[in-house]
Each structure stands twice: as C-alpha cells, then as structure tokens.
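Subject: design request, 177 residues
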C-alpha cells in the first residue's frame, strides 16, 4: 500500500519573495554554485530586501531551540549524548523541552517519534530529488541512495581500538581440557 503524498503548505508572500532572489541572483551574476550568504549580500546590495521587525521573543525562542538541539555531554563510553529533547503533546501544542535525565519515557517516545519523522522526511525528499536528477539530468549511471542505515549504525558501534599483539601460534595455545 502506498502512502498518501503530502502536499506542501502554500507559501506566504515573504517566502515567495525570498525564493525569487535565487534565480534573480543567478541570472544577474551567472554564479550557479552560490552560497546563501552571497545571495543575501547581493539581495541587500540591490535593495531587494530590508530587515523586518521581528518579534524579539519569537526570535530568541528560535535561537534557544537551535542551541538546545546542539547541547551534548559525553557518556561513560565517550559518546556524545543530546542533553535536551523536544516533543509536542498534540498537533497544535507548543514544543516542550526536557533534559534527558528528567524526561518521562512517554515524552522521550514522543521526541523519538518526531526526530524519526524528520529523518524519514529527509530520506523521502532525497530519494525524490535523486530520482528526478537520475531521470532528467544525469547522463551516466544512476546515483543510488540506500535508506537502510542498520549497517552504518552497527559500524559506528564497532570498537575502533584493537589489540596489536599477533594471534597465538597453534603450538602456543593452551591445551583443551
């Protein structure tokens, strides 16, 4: 059974305006390998954009969320563990954050489900992009994307340090009892 395709939300005028800066920049400069900073500088220099008044609380909340996603600590095995986890109690609810030491299992399950959905959405989007590229642009062998990450995860958890001593010769092995 095939999943129902989700349509993207309609874009507001501001988003459409920002989106239009990219092809305008490429047409004006010929630079097809641009950075967001070069397009932003060009748009400002050409009076296409001026800073909007931003709700200070909303802006700071976004910045705090970005920082909270990056706060980690090292566990006893040397792994970086994300300290704060976000979840919603319902679709129209605000994002709640809790530390990993305090979060209840049902809220950690919600946080896990939300992060997994983002991974899946990214994998779907990359697959769609690669399919388009392979079918319409790529003259050579298709660029493939393996969505099974089990081996990557298993490889990550393999020990990276091994004993440098050579294996024992069969004559040096202790006798079997």
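Subject: RE: design request

Done. Sequence follows.
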């Amino acid at each position: 059974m095939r999943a129902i395709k989700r349509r993207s939300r309609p874009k507001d005028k501001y988003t459409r305006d920002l989106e239009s800066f990219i092809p305008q920049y490429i047409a004006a400069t010929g630079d097809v390998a641009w950075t967001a900073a070069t397009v932003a500088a060009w748009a400002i220099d050409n009076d296409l954009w001026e800073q909007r008044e931003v709700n200070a609380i909303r802006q700071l909340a976004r910045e705090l969320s970005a920082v909270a996603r990056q706060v980690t600590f090292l566990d006893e095995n040397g792994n970086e563990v994300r300290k704060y986890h976000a979840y919603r109690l319902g679709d129209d609810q605000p994002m709640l954050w809790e530390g990993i030491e305090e979060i209840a299992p049902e809220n950690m399950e919600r946080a896990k489900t939300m992060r997994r959905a983002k991974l899946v959405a990214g994998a779907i989007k990359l697959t769609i992009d690669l399919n388009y590229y392979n079918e319409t642009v790529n003259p050579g062998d298709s660029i493939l994307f393996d969505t099974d990450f089990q081996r990557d995860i298993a490889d990550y958890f393999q020990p990276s340090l091994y004993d440098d001593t050579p294996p024992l010769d069969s004559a040096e092995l202790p006798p079997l009892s």
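Residues 2 and 124 are 13 Å apart (CA to CA).
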